[in-house]
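COMPLEX REQUEST
Ligand: pyridoxal-5'-phosphate
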Amino acid sequence: MSRTLTPADSQRIRADFPLLDRTVHGKPLVYFDNANTAQKPRAVIETVDRFYRHSNANVARAVHALGEEATSLYEGARDTLARFINADARDEVILTSGTTQAINLVAYSYALPRLGPGDVILTTRMEHHANIVPWQLVCARSGATVKAAPIHANGELDAEAFIQMLTPEVKLAAVTHVSNVLGTINPVARLAREARRRGIPLLVDGSQAAPHLPIDVRAIGCDFYAFTGHKLFGPTGTGALWARRALLEAMPPFFGGGEMIREVRFEGTTFADPPHRFEAGTPNIAGFVGLGAAIDYVQGIGLERIGAIERELLEHATSALQAVPGLRIFGTAPDKAAVIAFLIDGVHAHDLGTLLDHEGIAVRSGHHCAHPLMQFYGVPATLRASLSFYNTHEEIDRFVEAISRVRRLLA
Ligand SMILES: *Cc1c(COP(=O)(O)O)cnc(C)c1O
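STATUS: Structure written out below.
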């Protein structure tokens, strides 16, 4: 089989990520924790560095040249983000500190005023805590409840059940685009169509989709789309909420402060239009300028190509892991991203994670912020290897060899 990348292509891509060069415990690093946070290309590091060296000022406050420059770089990042997800308009993109803040904003500003006793927020069994806990908090205040649609044993969403659960009590549905544990890619366009037919807004958590798939919010047809910058090769503390303009216009502010007002009076303050209404205080300006550079970088390679590279890596890793005796993979949906959660019979996830670390291999062990999913599988924790386009087939071979060695040691 001919691969999407030649070894020379792969070398060139890896050379863009300085951190991949380092050793850990005296071994060359194998970084398989990309679903936790991704490494940053030189373009991002240099853009942030250049911003602080050359353009640093606060945004939307000063008329001096630096203030205008910083504002135009920051607002330029919003344009880049809007194009990246194919939004109708830049004003539909709110810059947040990440997915967590984006979902909390929707929970408090959109959902809470509309919730009462008997109402329901519908989500699924495979959600990250960031797409569960904010809903529980606003339900606790309003007497509403959170319900979770079931999943199949292979980690696919039971889409029929989800659709059946879209009853009139449901005031909002929230589903992940790609599971951070199972890798499952959910049929979000279909779910959005069904929700829309019933007049129920749908929020999609795109944290794990944005680094791997082309995102088109108009084609998906959802109402809210949240994602985080640091998994998309950008700086930590960056992310975005996209929402339909009509929804944003009907939403009151969540945080109050500077930069989000039109006029402040003690008799009553008036607020700026979206998106600035939702961006109180000084934002992570350098971070967003860096995120813009990350998106330019990713688009330079192309998300279709990234998807093809990662599918090859996923196939290779899956078949190699399946050959390890006693190894069980959680999440074998036909449509999945390059995330592999697994356990080995009789071996503790943390023990294996620690032994792999001694080999320079970084995987995550734990519950992956998805307790209800662990409860579904009846396990306290799993290991998770999450791959990115800068990983290689040789790294996968080193990883699987190390697992085989450790298994023999621990068995
Ligand atoms: C990482 C992640 C989040 C939370 O993102 P933050 O950057 O921590 O806000 C939410 N949902 C999913 C599916 C994730 O993978």
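REMARKS: The radius of gyration is 22 Å. The first helix runs from residue 7 to 15.
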